[in-house]
Amino acid sequence: MPDYQQLSAADLAALEAICGPERVLTGPAINEDYHHDEMPEYGKFPPEVVVEAQSAAEIARIMRYASERRIPVTPRGSGTGLCGGAVPVRGGILLSTARMNRILEIDEENLTVTTEPGVLLMELAKAVLERDLLYPPDPGEKSATIGGNVMTNAGGMRAVKYGVTRDYVRGMEVVLPNGDLLELGGKIAKNSSGYSLKDLLIGSEGTLGIVTRLTLRLVPLPKKVISLLVPFPDLDGCIGTVPQIIKSKAVPTAIEFMEREVIVAAEEYLGKSFPDKSSDAYLLLTFDGNSAAEVERQAEQVAEICLAAGAVDVLISDTEERQEAIWSARGAFLEAIKSSTPEMDECDVVVPRNRIAVFVKFVKELERKHAIRIRSFGHAGDGNLHIYVCKDDLSEAAWREKLDRVMRELYDKAIELDGKVSGEHGIGHAKVPFLRQSEGETYFNLIQAVKQAFDPQGILNPGKVCGR
């Protein structure tokens, strides 16, 4: 571990000279929320100081100073991550980009939006929607910042058709650990000019650089959207239908799976009724496009596949009110599970789509084997599963013992099925051992070498992704 410097009174004075004293928080002024992200399990790391930056120039000066003094710096947006990526495990400076929240330009000729990193996903989506445009990535946490989405390569529910955040980043401005400013990409649609450092930065979780401006690709807003809620009598039939849908060449925007227990929890959490909760398992599918006839044809084709595979019914949602009723419940699944237990841990493995049923069955076996409550839902269309292990009334000792076994077995099974440790939430500090185990020493040595090249002093978001 590098020999970091603790902050002194002189360091605080230097930071105040850069940002002003009102944006340099210490002691009781640091809200406890800054100690952790949305998964407190991976938190409890208080920063020595929180600095609220407002410009790339300020961040460059802060990083230059931190580099000279060997002070660790942890970048943070909204803190909505789920694996401890934005918590200061080595202390030092917690650098918030939340104040950098301006949408700088919507370019309708090049179909791009240029934005600061602190803009919330929901604000970006609303701003481009007003121009009849769509920013396709659709992670579940709409209050996340766009900078955080890019740094974790967030996925979301539209990934089946549209891909993930990486597919929409055209350019970025980045401050490197030594304070240098780097421009990568731009509004260009193609680029074969050397190594793609832009793509290396995407998903790097703030360990290689701090993004200060983003240029993102947009698409025309689809004119027609239809959702299907499809109840199945059991989970096997539900998940087993997904490969048939994919094979049919229909192109849903989203294919989500859910179980009754999670739906009921979301109903209680939101105080709203779900359209149907009579079955054990459900698929939720969305189709979009510019031709109503084409969208309806694809929806009908998939409805027939589901009914032939044993679906109880197909409920069509083709109005804004019905769509909201279904998707608001889907968006509340995580918070509903969190509210039902004093503590939980999460894994978001991704497996090949034709292995989803095998993995989901394995999760059920683990629940019975270890006598611990496990809730799961996820993106059936791209193989990304969200699995939550709940403490409930277990003693601390029993919880730790069972949790360790369950998590190891989950990751081992994902590796066995040719999957990966994370589909969209990232590695943070919580999943470093699992990444190393799954990818092997050659891979791990390479990513540590990349970290060393960008950040030889190891001051930027230390302890994350590659452990340095």
From TrEMBL:
<dbReference type="Pfam" id="PF02913">
    <property type="entry name" value="FAD-oxidase_C"/>
</dbReference>
<protein>
    <submittedName>
        <fullName>Glycolate oxidase</fullName>
    </submittedName>
</protein>
<dbReference type="InterPro" id="IPR004113">
    <property type="entry name" value="FAD-bd_oxidored_4_C"/>
</dbReference>
<dbReference type="GO" id="GO:0071949">
    <property type="term" value="F:FAD binding"/>
</dbReference>
<dbReference type="InterPro" id="IPR036318">
    <property type="entry name" value="FAD-bd_PCMH-like_sf"/>
</dbReference>
<keyword id="KW-0560">Oxidoreductase</keyword>
<keyword id="KW-0274">FAD</keyword>
<feature type="domain" description="FAD-binding PCMH-type">
    <location>
        <begin position="42"/>
        <end position="221"/>
    </location>
</feature>
<dbReference type="InterPro" id="IPR016164">
    <property type="entry name" value="FAD-linked_Oxase-like_C"/>
</dbReference>
<dbReference type="InterPro" id="IPR016169">
    <property type="entry name" value="FAD-bd_PCMH_sub2"/>
</dbReference>
<dbReference type="Pfam" id="PF01565">
    <property type="entry name" value="FAD_binding_4"/>
</dbReference>
<dbReference type="InterPro" id="IPR006094">
    <property type="entry name" value="Oxid_FAD_bind_N"/>
</dbReference>
<dbReference type="InterPro" id="IPR016171">
    <property type="entry name" value="Vanillyl_alc_oxidase_C-sub2"/>
</dbReference>
<keyword id="KW-0285">Flavoprotein</keyword>
<dbReference type="InterPro" id="IPR051914">
    <property type="entry name" value="FAD-linked_OxidoTrans_Type4"/>
</dbReference>
<dbReference type="InterPro" id="IPR016166">
    <property type="entry name" value="FAD-bd_PCMH"/>
</dbReference>
<dbReference type="GO" id="GO:0016491">
    <property type="term" value="F:oxidoreductase activity"/>
</dbReference>
